[in-house]
Specification:
Elements lengths: L1 H11 L8 E4 L5 H9 L6 E7 L7 E6 L9 E6 L23 H7 L9 E12 L4 E10 L12 E8 L5 E3 L31 E4 L25 E3 L2 E6 L5 E11 L6 E6 L2 H14 L1
Antiparallel strand pairs: 1-3, 2-5, 3-4, 4-13, 5-12, 6-10, 6-11, 6-13, 7-8, 7-12, 9-10
Length: 288
């Protein structure tokens, strides 16, 4: 990924005590973002689209220089606020944003939280491609300021919508593993609010709010000053998988949004080249 290689060089010449987790918000074009996300400049993608605020300030690249407690080394981040505020430690509240939500995300999150219908501050990436393999997958972490504070009722969440443009069939594959439940703050949580039970805690990594936070439910928490990201909590590394029909035309739409209000941001961190890796492995399997 071109932007990530540049970040690595910048970090290498920086003060290591300061430059530990860096986010770069220097977005140039939708095509660059998508191809960097895919990790293969020759991948036959088209109809590139990104939207994350008036200047796309909710999209950026991250490099984890030295934090062993953050399992992704580098990749793309989509945020419901300004990505410039994503860098840790977790010592401030991220409330930026102020742009519109997304109707597709609303329809999906309403199935788990019918009391509210409107999302806010949607960060979106979308592209089309012709499938030459039978499935795709990628690794990600979802983080949120809602964790530990409003995780009982504020359902910030996201969707990974795969649409077969040949057949018209569309599905959201951003689901709690082994279920049909969309992933959001209220469906994967540690129970640290004390006002609601933990949900799917085996997929919740930790709070970044202090060593004893959430201990009553078995959730893990670290000192806020040791957190590489400026969010109150995060999921484990989860994997999205979608089955494809070789030769069909597809659209992929990734969207995250705030829910029930437009404050307390959330974000998605995608591992660099995880989509490209599975595509390469599957292509090799087909060749063999």
């Amino acid at each position: 990924m071109r932007k990530l290689l540049l970040l690595v060089l910048i970090i290498s010449f920086s003060n290591k005590s300061v430059a530990q987790f860096i986010v770069n918000d220097n977005i140039t074009s939708a095509q660059d973002v998508v191809l960097d996300f895919i990790g293969n400049p020759n991948f036959p993608a088209s109809n590139f689209y990104i939207s994350a605020g008036p200047t796309n300030q909710g999209i950026g690249y991250f490099v984890n220089y030295s934090y062993s407690n953050f399992p992704l080394a580098n990749g793309l981040v989509l945020c419901t606020g300004n990505v410039a505020e994503v860098n840790g430690p977790n010592i401030s509240e991220i409330n930026t944003g102020g742009w519109s939500g997304d109707a597709d995300l609303d329809a999906i999150l309403t199935t788990i939280d019918p009391g509210f219908s409107a999302s806010h501050d949607a960060a979106i990436m979308q592209f089309d491609f012709v499938a030459d393999v039978s499935s795709i997958s990628l690794d990600f972490i979802m983080a949120s300021e809602e964790y530990g504070t409003y995780e009982c009722s504020f359902s910030d969440g996201f969707a990974f919508i795969v649409t077969n443009l040949t057949t018209g069939i569309s599905e959201n594959v951003a689901l709690v593993p082994g279920t049909t439940t969309p992933i959001s703050v209220i469906t994967v949580r540690g129970g640290g609010n004390m006002g609601c039970a933990a949900q799917n805690i085996n997929y919740f990594e930790r709070y970044n709010l202090g060593a004893s936070y959430g201990s009553s439910t078995g959730a893990t928490s670290i000192d806020p000053n040791d957190s590489p990201i400026n969010f109150n909590g995060q999921t484990k590394v989860l994997v999205l998988t979608a089955d494809l029909v070789v030769g069909d035309l597809y659209s992929i739409k990734i969207v995250i949004g705030d829910r029930n209000d437009d404050i307390l941001n959330s974000a998605l961190f995608f591992r660099a080249d995880s989509l490209a890796l599975i595509l390469t492995l599957l292509l090799l399997r087909v060749i063999w």
